[in-house]
């Protein structure tokens, strides 16, 4: 199981992250498409090649090719939108809020999966990227679509744990490289 492979990459000092991965892999608040799509989108959002590879190995058999592609697309479009809209939200200049973004975002209108699923994945990646503007926008769409708050919370819990796993794996790799250079 690839979740176990991720757990094996995480050192003992981060045991809580390992335990949370197990819990979230068996999360029942979300259906399989929402859960595993969130895992994939967040792995891409967290930007660690090992985590992406292992999460996709676990998720691919549980997702249609369209859902796998849409989860990746959610991470890709949020990598762009979270920078732009975080700027808009942070700026004291109100004019930016009235200006059109002039960025292509066609996938948001036609993600190839249920719109609510795509919005959930986008919200989770936006949480990783710290874009309050996008979190609020996606949350409003999800609430209007009837998505339960417990589902949103579950998706953000996945985002938090996958992001932590990626940071820990990156940190461990940096330590190994540093030790190798020192030797």
TrEMBL record:
Taxonomic superkingdom: Bacteria
Disulfide bridge positions per record: 131-134
Keywords, ordered alphabetically: Antioxidant, Disulfide bond, Oxidoreductase, Peroxidase, Redox-active center
GO MF annotation, one: peroxiredoxin activity
Residues of the signal peptide: none
Enzyme class, spelled out: oxidoreductase
Any Pfam family matching the protein: CMD
EC number in record: 1.11.1.28
Active-site residues per Swiss-Prot or TrEMBL entry: 131 (proton donor), 134 (cysteine sulfenic acid (-soh) intermediate)
SUPFAM superfamilies: AhpD-like (SSF69118)
Function: Antioxidant protein with alkyl hydroperoxidase activity. Required for the reduction of the AhpC active site cysteine residues and for the regeneration of the AhpC enzyme activity.
Family label: Belongs to the AhpD family.
PANTHER family (UniProt xref): ALKYL HYDROPEROXIDE REDUCTASE AHPD
Protein name (Swiss-Prot/TrEMBL): Alkyl hydroperoxide reductase AhpD
Originating organism: Micavibrio aeruginosavorus (strain ARL-13)
């Amino acid at each position: 199981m690839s979740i176990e492979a991720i757990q094996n990459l995480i050192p003992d000092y981060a045991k809580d992250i390992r335990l949370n991965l197990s819990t979230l892999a068996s999360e029942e608040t979300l259906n399989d498409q929402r859960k595993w799509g969130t895992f994939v989108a967040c792995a891409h959002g967290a930007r660690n090649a090992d985590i992406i590879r292992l999460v996709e190995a676990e998720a691919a058999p549980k997702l249609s090719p369209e859902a796998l592609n849409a989860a990746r697309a959610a991470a890709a479009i949020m990598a762009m939108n979270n920078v732009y809209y975080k700027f808009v939200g942070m700026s004291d200049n109100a004019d930016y809020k009235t200006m059109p973004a002039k960025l292509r975002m066609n996938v948001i209108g036609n993600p190839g999966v249920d719109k609510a699923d795509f919005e959930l994945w986008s919200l989770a990646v936006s949480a990783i990227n710290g874009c309050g503007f996008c979190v609020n926008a996606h949350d409003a769409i999800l609430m209007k679509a009837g998505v339960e708050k417990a589902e949103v919370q579950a998706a953000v819990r996945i985002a938090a744990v996958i992001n932590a796993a990626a940071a820990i794996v990156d940190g461990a790799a940096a330590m190994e490289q540093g030790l190798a250079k020192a030797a």
